[in-house]
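Supplementary material to the annual report.
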Amino acid sequence: MLTKRIIPCLDIKDGRTVKGVNFENIRDAGDPIELGALYAAQGADELVFLDITATNERRKTLAELVSRIARHVNIPFTVGGGIAAVEDVNVLLQSGADKISVNTAAFNSPGLIDAMAREFGSQCIVLAIDTRFEDGDWYVYLNGGRVKTATRAFDWAKEAVDRGAGEILLTSMNNDGTKKGFALDITGQLSQNLHVPVIASGGAGTVEHFVDVFEKAQADAALAASIFHYKEIEIPALKTFLYEKGVNVRF
Amino acid sequence: MKTAIIKYNAGNIRSVQFALERLGVTGIVTDNPEEIISADKVIFPGVGEASTAMRYLRERKLDQLITGLKQPVLGICLGMQLLCKHSEENDTDCLGIFDTAVKRFQSPVENLLKIPQIGWNNITGLHSVMFEHVPENAYMYFVHSYYASLGADTVAITNYVINYSAALQKDNFYAVQFHPEKSADSGSRIIENFLNL
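Predicted assembly:
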């Protein structure tokens, strides 16, 4: 039986792991390779590396980092952050990434998703959506949550899947950093109405929150960062708890 | 020992190379017939689309070369499907080592079954030297929309709404649908077992 996945997310800046709380107040949480290998050994099912470096050197640095990660980590991993061209995807996959995630560039040029899926297959194209609930609905935000759009998260997710996105990584900005639980409503809406896996992100604070997002929202995977980096929740204990609650997980 | 990884137009070859490296083995990525034929072990990896991959192999006569190999060969993911007889993916005739049909997953109810299957699933009914020291129900990482049916060559089974072949074996040909190179320690053990054949 296919298991629910636990995915630690490592935000990368200049080759180091950082985590922003509510997308601000960034703190250093260690070396990405070391941390990634540690999570893999602890039973993480996948890893996500989001590059938030904003310099011209970033593309080359990222490819080198990806190759170092692939050398040391024996579980699948996704790389995202500023990916805007088919050639970027090619370089990262060739360096050893299993999947790439696209966000702002795909929203601005949706044809990118078609082109990437055609070239590399849907299975390696993850669409990341940052969303915020306001005025009665969930709207797409771009540029790391700084730019609001008038598009509903569900509509964009559906279009992206039709264009060939193979997975949705959904981050609720309302929940991110709060440790009060995942956004169950929008996660459930996507997961139950789209035929691709949905990764829930933003708001994990306790082990019960993971049970809720898997059982109530039927997420396929749950992603978190700071609670893992600062050892507030450790992956073996989380998986044991999920197992005891009847959630199918890998040991 | 020389291990060749067949180079063709299907992705994720680097991950296989790194997995070998973690076991202290250098994998040579090549489409040179002599290099492949002279290797002690041959790995046929792949993530991609069946008809495009088969066309590429035929154009370079790698199809005949692969089916004629006498040393242990390990097909991974698309590599395994291409070793089967026929794939529903764009109605493609494949290499025919395994007398098995490759079909597309069908959701019994709309959106109930997510396709592709992405993630960790368990393998059962293990009976191959590939699985020595790999426990029954071990979890492996799968990413695929098409599956090989059960048949005489099935040596491991996985369930995703239906039971299908997680692994096949016939003579010197070994094949797995999952990605051992991405399946943590259990996956690494399978690669090691293959290298020790």
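The mean pLDDT of chain A is 91.
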